[in-house]
Amino acid sequence: MKQICVVGVGYVGLVTAACFADLGNRVVALDVDEKRVENLKKGIMPIYEPGLEELVKRNVKGGRLIFTTSYADAMKGAEYAFIAVGTPSGGDGNADLQYVQAAAESIAKNMTTPLIIINKSTVPIGTGDWVADIVKKAQPGPIEFAVVSCPEFLREGSAIADFMSPHRNVIGSLDKDAANKVAQLHLPLRAPIVITDLRTAEMIKYASNAFLATKISFINELADLCELVGADVKEVATGMGYDARIGRYFLDAGLGWGGSCFPKDVQALAFMAKEMGLNPRILNDVMEVNYDRRSAVSKHVEKMLGGNLKGKTIGLLGLAFKENTDDMRDAPSVDISNALIAEGANVRGYDPVARETAAPLMPAVEIFDDIYEMVAGCDALIVVTPWNEFKQLDLDKVKDLMKTPAVYDGRNMYDPARMREMGFTYKAVGR
Ligand code: NAD
To answer: Residue with the nearest Cα to atom 25 of ligand 1?
Structure first.
């Protein structure tokens, strides 16, 4: 049983803490957000993530997982401290490291025994060395420590499965002993472990996210061409995906990527390249192609409705940036609803779990608790988030309830032939 402290109990930190506890370690999960910690002590989860509540409760009950706001308590006897705080985009496109800095200083001031500090947050290349300097300066007296990079690759919505069965774990440090100890922690996950230096590990994370974002922007660019030449992008992706060199994942054409990682990480990587005097041409285009997806939606819907959105009621199916999460960070639904409202439309929305997180970001959008109530009287629907619930909709009922049965399927969820047979004015992406 290892003594682990996880700093920051958000999407990554809470999953990391609960999973390491479930693997038999003693984990203290710390956050500066008092309300969040208070709720967690009562068993109330701060985020929606399938399976998380049960996992947290089981490990709290088993005495392996505790929550605190006190660095002094959390660092007592800790052998490992994971930093899992947010690294949002700063105004200039670079990652904002203020939370990492604060966490590193607090760890340094409160550590009492030799410690391995493991950076799980996605951070610009060189941050590990910077954290080491911060800790050295903030320590009241010299206590041995090492800084290791161990970037996280989980996806919201399947975070627990991703953490427990990763494709690989990447561990970066110049301290071989510390890297090996962190590798030992991950051995029960039975995944390949890549041990490398700090900066390479930090780069692997950005490179992976930027590559996945590139795949999505690539297929979206092809989707527009497919529409014009009469090809079906979904079948193109399937046909490409069987090639093991390409793979089918992240080749779904639609409204593009959003969320808490790809936007800020692609931007931060481009920023780093520019700072180094390079011209990140691919990364810039990947971002431009992506955000064009969002601005094109209102134009497509306008065309479907005869050229005018003024006074039309448009319903958004899904608000979260992806399915199985309540995360609204850089969700396409926000830009899409703003564009529709600017054209004079009334916008409504429905999401199975993101109602509360969405509401403050879209005050002019009427958010419904019942999907059929939202659909009733709509001139058009836009599929924004590919929730399974939408696949099971009673489409006959939907058609009857709508004022005019127009559907812009931004996630290629429905069968175009069937939708048209049913009498919908239906537009998919690249089909
Ligand atoms: P989050 O915003 O959900 O959680 C961050 C938490 O850190 C919050 O609860 C906040 O209160 C806490 N915090 C901030 N400053 C603190 C401090 N000084 N001490 C203690 N706690 C503090 O963020 P997230 O989505 O979990 O992301 C965390 C990191 O992991 C980011 O770098 C992100 O890029 C990376 N990451 C995220 C995902 C994802 O899917 N969300 C996946 C892989 C990697």
So the answer is: 11
